[in-house]
Amino acid sequence: MKILQKNTAITGAAFLMATSAIGPGFLTQTTVFTQKLLASFGFVILVSILLDIIAQVNIWRILSATGKRAQDIANDMLPGLGYILSILILAGGIAFNIGNIGGCGLGIEVLSGLPNVYGAAISCGIALFIFWMKEAGSIMDHFTKLLGVVMVLLTIYVAISSHPPVLQAVHRSFIPETLDAKAIVTLVGGTVGGYICFAGGHRLLDAGFSGTQALPAVTRSAVTGICVTAIMRIVLFLAVLGVVSAGNILDGTNPPASVFKIAAGEIGYRFFGVVMWCAAITSVVGAAYTSVSFLRTFHPWIEKNYRWLITAFILLSGCLYILIGNPVKILVTVGALNGLILPVALAVMLLVIGKKKIKGYQHPLWLTVSGWLVVSAMGYMSYLTIKGWLA
């Protein structure tokens, strides 16, 4: 593999994962929880970053060491388990993609005035165009990197404009006034839950990164992906904190848009349109690619026709969006649901690597121990979240 192609694949996988996480749900969740917890939300972000890194490094290294996709690893451990995991991932992917496509429409509406549905349809067409290009993998890598950088830079501008209380945010990030288990589950679920934790790992497998010799690059890519999402989360947190700390009331129907508009006026509102569209379209690409990757090894026909399945996935998500809409509550709830999937998926990976002997590779003990701690912590917090829903 040429050095340039290798580096492109490594950073491309990191940004595919990161931009899959940074979607409309990410923007909404961060805004809603910052409004609720204020500066103490910084502590939630720090905890979630730690859990994200442990979970993702474990999963990506196990995928690379075995050279297999997650569904095949699960089926190796218990026949049929891979199919169950795939169903969970597909369901979560479609649910997320409904919000993603809605976000595409909203972004174009803000920028051009076109009705939301038309913007959503145009964005679906752009996503399909990317997947039907001959060099789809390379184009996807460059596309997600470019739009990822644009999102971060524009949000930094808004964060500076909002004049956030940075010292207070730093203080409460380590000594919070309030704790919220649901917020942690939702953030981890929105960053590495469901299909997202497998997005870059499966992309690296497709790019030829498998076996123990690829592990340093895989680890670097996994950490890079989390760092990109962390930077975006922190910058958006500061932007929202600056706005709400000044006593402003956010629009409950579209909290992130009101943050951008209050902080930076009309230009901030237009920036929101760009950020929302970039976040949404890259998440459409990531959700479709990763969700269908969970089917590709089940039958040769699926592998041969995976582009048609991606097309069907995107069109189905678009039709469902038109039917049920894109309320704020759905975007927050889906993040929490994906957080419930994570402890199951990570536990399966750890059980497999614990039993499977791979020549020349021993999974690091610190990763195994910390991985099981994440499974336990996320499992317990998921229990508290479900208990809260049922109460």
From TrEMBL:
Keywords: Membrane, Transmembrane, Transmembrane helix. It comes from the Bacteria. PANTHER family: SOLUTE CARRIER PROTEIN FAMILY 11 MEMBER (PTHR11706), TRANSPORTER PROTEIN (PTHR11706:SF2). This is Mn2+/Fe2+ NRAMP family transporter. It comes from Sediminibacterium goheungense. InterPro entries: NRAMP_fam. The keyword Ribosomal protein does not apply. GO terms for cellular component: plasma membrane. One of its GO terms (biological process) is iron ion transmembrane transport. GO terms for molecular function: cadmium ion transmembrane transporter activity; manganese ion transmembrane transporter activity. The chain crosses the membrane at residues 37-60, 81-108, 114-133, 145-163, 183-201, 222-247, 267-294, 306-324, 330-353, 365-386. It is found in: Membrane. The lineage of its organism: Bacteria, Pseudomonadati, Bacteroidota, Chitinophagia, Chitinophagales. The keyword Ion transport does not apply. It is a multi-pass membrane protein. Pfam families: Nramp.
